[in-house]
Write a structure and sequence with these properties.
Length: about 425
């Protein structure tokens, strides 16, 4: 016959398994993602190192080092996220230890009182309580009380021993979590130095390209191609939102048994994070009141048609280009979810944020990024820093309403 203790042990094991296995899988997934990023960086580094230093002056080399910087940024953002998560786990573990210690202290005090009482008044036995009782009813009450008191003392002892074991285990876990955080912090420091080195190398190549009119013209061509890619990314996000809406509608109209069919008809998501914006503040209501993504900036390329006198070319701008004046920090203009962090030739690191009401904002030419895809961010939240492009420290900024791009200047304060 299975004892109660065995039954409880099985339940505890199953509960811990449910908590630990998904966490282990998550850690393994993170490791695979980081290793993939490192492999991509190594591949690009090898490609660039095959050239002599004096040959590293082409637009392709500039894009190569730019993509390396983007990948290191992604790696850093992931490490920062893991480091923050590990700190939360450490803080929770410390709270758990304090709670256990408090419980142990209370049990010790209660047991000490019990020992003192026994020493002063002697051990009041069940038979003594019966003979000393004024009535039969009082004797029954006293017997019941003593039984419960005795059971409570035994339970307190069991609980005390259990808590001591839990405390030892919690302290061991705390030390392990602290060590894991230390490793993450060390990894982050290494990658920060790597990024600094790459940005320095990128600047040297950039200075060489800036003097070459032909290379500048080629960069404009690359930019035009990337403009279409940004549009494609926006359309993909719009289609994902429509797919999700259709799926929710269909689920509400059909039984649970039809779920598999629903997924086949509508298609699976390419995004492994929540893109929902329903809980955010209205974006549409903020038209004309939104803060600028960078402070002390000035618009150097307006929305729509623009002529480049130096290259004698006319281009269409889907957004606006803002030259950073000293402060290069980029902030989210309205609360939303980080939907895309991508690298595109001509625009470097591009970040897309989804907002309530099918609106999206695009931030291009970022040198550093502090967020990950799937992160929820508030209005004014720091998302990165403007990087140096061929035209200087310029942020490319767009606003989209569904599939239609709109003039950001009519929306900003």
């Amino acid at each position: 016959m299975v004892t109660l203790r065995t039954y409880i042990s099985v339940l505890i094991f199953l509960a811990l398994s449910c908590q630990l296995f998904p966490q282990d899988n998550q850690i393994e997934t993170k490791k695979l993602e980081l290793n993939k990023l490192k492999d991509e960086i190594s591949k690009l580094e090898k490609e660039l190192s095959q050239k002599k230093i004096k040959e590293k002056k082409s637009l392709k080399d500039y894009e190569n080092i730019g993509k390396q910087s983007f990948l290191v940024n992604k790696l850093l953002a992931s490490l920062r996220s893991q480091e923050n998560q590990k700190q939360i786990e450490i803080d929770n573990r410390i709270k758990e230890i304090k709670a256990i210690e408090k419980e142990i202290d209370l049990l010790q005090k209660n047991y000490a009182k019990y020992v003192v009482a026994n020493y002063k008044y002697g051990n009041y036995t069940e038979w003594e309580s019966v003979f000393d009782a004024a009535s039969f009813q009082q004797a029954v009450i006293r017997l019941e009380y003593l039984k419960r008191f005795s059971a409570k003392r035994k339970n307190d002892l069991v609980e005390y021993e259990t808590n001591k074991k839990e405390l030892i285990l919690a302290k061991e876990k705390l030390e392990k979590e602290k060590e894991e955080k230390r490793v993450l912090t060390a990894q982050k420091a290494v990658e920060e130095k790597s990024l600094e080195k790459k940005l320095s190398e990128k600047e040297k190549i950039l200075n060489s390209i800036k003097r070459d009119k032909r290379k500048l013209a080629k960069s404009v061509t690359e930019k035009r191609k990337s403009e279409q890619k940004i549009k494609d990314l926006i359309i993909k996000l719009v289609e994902e939102a429509e797919r999700k809406k259709a799926e929710e509608l269909k689920k509400s109209e059909t039984l649970v048994s039809a779920d598999a069919k629903t997924k086949r008809e509508i298609g699976e998501s390419d995004y492994n994070f929540d893109l929902s914006t329903s809980n955010f503040a209205s974006f549409a209501e903020m038209k004309g009141k939104l803060n600028w993504p960078i402070t002390k900036g000035r618009v150097v390329r307006k929305f729509g048609e623009n002529r480049n006198r130096k290259l004698n070319t006319v281009t269409i701008n889907y957004g606006i280009d803002i030259k950073a004046g000293g402060e290069r920090s980029v902030k989210c203009i309205s609360e939303g979810v980080i939907s895309t962090v991508e690298w595109l030739p001509g625009y470097g690191t591009v970040l897309i944020i989804s907002h309530k009401g099918n609106y999206r904002t695009v931030y291009g030419h970022l040198g550093e990024v502090y967020v990950n895809e799937g992160d929820k961010i508030k209005a004014g939240g720091l998302i990165g820093k403007v990087g140096e492009s061929l035209e200087g420290n310029i942020l490319h900024f767009e606003i989209w309403n569904g599939r239609q791009n709109v003039n950001p200047q009519t929306w900003l304060r």
